[in-house]
Specification:
Elements lengths: L2 H11 L3 E3 L7 E4 L2 E4 L8 H5 L1
Antiparallel strand pairs: 1-2, 2-3
Organism: marine sediment metagenome
Protein name: Type IV pili twitching motility protein PilT
């Protein structure tokens, strides 16, 4: 997954923060709540390294 896609999704959803952890889906802070983006693929170490 490209970081640009995540940032665009953040803007669309009104998210203030993006939490990235391996292995797991990205997590966005929306209205003060941490919401896992289950529709996004789990991030691999290679994804995060990019």
């Amino acid at each position: 997954m490209e970081i640009q896609q995540l940032l665009s999704s953040m803007a669309d959803k009104g998210a203030s923060d993006l939490h990235i952890r391996v292995p797991g889906p990205p997590v966005m802070r929306i209205d003060g709540k941490l919401i896992p983006q289950e529709d996004s693929p789990r991030l691999s170490p290679a994804d995060v390294e990019q």
